[in-house]
Amino acid sequence: MTRRLTAFAGTGAFRWWIVAAFATVAVVAPAFATSLTIEFGGDVHPGKCLPCHEDYATVENPDYAFTHGGHLTHQCTTCHPRFPHTASGTDVPVMRDCFNCHGLYHGPQGVIAGAECESCHGDAVESLRPASHRFDWSGVAHVEPALAGLTTECSMCHAESACDSCHVAEGVAWSPAEPMIYNAGSGCIACHGSPNLRKNTPDGLVSFHVTGLEDSAHADLTCPQCHIDFGYAEPAAPTKLWYVNVGMACADGLCHDHDDQVEAYAASVHGVALAAGDYGSATCGSCHGGHDIALLDTDEARTALHFSGEAMCAGCHEDRWDSYDDAYHGAAYKRGADDAPSCWDCHPAHDALPSSDPKSSTHPARLAATCASCHQHADATSSFAAGAADTIHKQEELRAENPLHKLLSTLPGSW
Description:
mainly alpha, two-stranded antiparallel ribbon
């Protein structure tokens, strides 16, 4: 071959062959280079991996058995919120991220994925024991470290029985202050942080994308603190309806000291109905919201709360909201008058009672005091309250019964 090319090199034909070869490279090389251009950043999807990894189904690692193929039902961003290859190296998901799904009891859907260590790690489990672990804890200070990481570290692999195996033998009486259920923090956002998380329902396409947490009053809470039946074990939830359970999570006292409000709610028309099994009744979450609940530390936030009557109450009391249209109260409130009363200025939020109850703020015997709570009516009397009460929610009926209105309604072009 070498002799043939040497003999051919002196000919003009060879010079033209060289030119043609370089021209071909000049045309093909840019096209080839463009096909390997990889975008660093943005959403992670298979198209960004395929140029270098034609078969990325199996990942070779001596510490665990993992396949991308076994996770095809999940978006890449579930495990890779950022593009894994960077200038400083490859960002591999840590084991904690696995528990975003593994062992998670997802409410009515049951356990999403198993959490048996050997399923992924096989015989390598023992070699992966953390350096902080010992086979014999006796005589070693371990109470404070255990309590500090009870639900965020220890419970990842251990149940309370693991502690009891030693405590019982040593005659130590101990029980955790809170259930030993693993808490992966806000790992739920691995899925619920995606705007593409949607589900077809009888009411149409519903989004399960969670937004607003970063700026809310709940920014420092973990998901299972409110979603008590979405845990890493199957806890005993108060009801089988997740939205009722999460709506009443505020009442368990783990986050807030709401004893007075909880006691008032339990005796209210809402609390009594819920206790009787009416799960359409308002819970804490029905009024206060959840993911985007605001801190009331600014005038803007307090004003927004004042004018949230429609969002809080109209969903259940649409007729009462629509009829709240008298000039001095409802109509003024809906136009944005700061001094116009919201629903809960007359109907207390936590201890709302039927108007037939003598303790109700709208009971005839207490109406005057309710009206007097506003500075405009500080001298309100029972007769004033009795005469004015019907004007607030019954404007339409009063107009229909007004003789002058009846007369005018018979005239051509009447109003």
